[in-house]
Amino acid sequence: MSTESDRTEAAASSDTFVRGLSQAIGGPLGSHAVPPSKKPGKFWTAARIVMALCCLTLALHWVQKSPCADGNWQNNVQYTRFCYTDVLALYYAEGLNEGKVPYKDHAVEYPVVTGYFMGAIGLPVHALGERYESINQGTWFYDANALVLCALAVATAGVILALRRRRPWDGAIFAVSPILFITATVNWDFLAIGLAAFGLYAWAKRHPLVAGILLGLGGAAKLWPLFILGPLLMLALRSRRVLEWGYAMAGAVGIWVAVNLPVFVLYRDSWLRFFRLNDERPVDWGTFWYIGRFLDTKWNTGTAGDQGPFQWLSDHVGVLNWLSYALFGLCCVGIALLCLLAPRRPRLASVAFLVVAAFLIFSKVWSQQYVLWLLPLIVLARPKWGAIIAWTVAEFGYFTAFYAELLGAGGKPVIPEGTFVLASSLRLITVAVLCGLVIREIWRPELDVVRQSYADDPDGGILDAAPDAPWVDGFRRRFGVGRPHRKADNDTAITAA
Known about the structure:
It is a single chain. The chain has helices at 11-14, 16-22, 46-65, 77-80, 86-93, 112-131, 137-163, 170-175, 178-183, 189-204, 208-219, 229-239, 242-266, 268-280, 288-296, 309-315, 317-341, 348-362, 371-381, 385-407, 417-443, 449-453, 471-478, 487-496. It is an all-alpha fold. The protein has one domain (4-26, 43-71, 79-496). The two termini are 17 Å apart. The relative contact order is 0.10.
């Protein structure tokens, strides 16, 4: 007899978009049918299919990047074939091809875990190339990096499956995503993504110190995994689990200091380069500020006496930095209030997605591969195919427009500037719409499909099914909202599901 603990949701039963597509092959699985994955001796379970699909997507990604793998980028092949990757470009730009040690001999522009990783692969490849001159060092370096980064991508898919055992087909949203196909190895982002995913898994398994260590390592590869500590704090406050959050925070700070300290002490100027570069960088392609500056040109010439606000900010990067931080901070305050005022304590993945998305929306830099930060989080936060496909189409449109813009940067434009701005705007709008949909489901938890499969929060760990602190009721009343969700409502939700 099937129990709730071993129930597996079929995608066509829980997702309206998939249900509609399934009509072409007879509709959703019947209530009395035996799922293929439950049949004795069946090898191809849903989880194994998802993992195989992820491997196939990444294999196709490697093939798609192969025209650029030899480093012979003649006639802008890296743009015309959409195969550009920082991994190969920076092998030469960071001096790894000359045997330079990151930070010691060259001030790497990335946080230290990424720099360590570059050196750990790049220096042996250089030494091998010195011994065997026939090998292409750039190709070997890219392939070695791609192997590790793709392994981390597969591991991330495994974490999604482990966190959603009752909803394994949610992992397919990640596994077959065109976003994964086009950007998996554009940069080293899967270092941070993989570590953040492991951190979320450790938290879900009630190991807060380990979770903090993994998030801290992720934050030492790319800064954004540290943002997840903010949502954890607000949810811990609501659930009276601040001590456990303290363990996670201590682990994150401790490991971040430990891995940064050697470079900070020995090569301080090199260590500071990442932070200085972020302070000094101008408005980057496709950002909110880039779009605003383009719109300013429709009414202002851009000269000293005739500038719009975005044009002025582009010339005053210091002010732009503080404004960007302030807007992100205001978003975080709003998200914190949402955590405390929502009728049920929000799920961790939902709040984490909102924080990372808010950072990207108002950041002055939004590189093409940053979309990978959002992909696993939106799958965990709101695993509905329709809205994610719309967002994916917008991201793919931006990807192609961005390469066309790069191709025309040194000569005749390939597409009008307005076309690129339109693609950038659609990307930003679809991310904002996803945020709105996640907020809606936080405020109306009965719409959350994950909570239709689980009693509370499968990612919550020590927060899962925890009652609200006594002060939450009064806090919500001060803002004129109804009583908070209580454990009795959990029992009702289980029965309804």
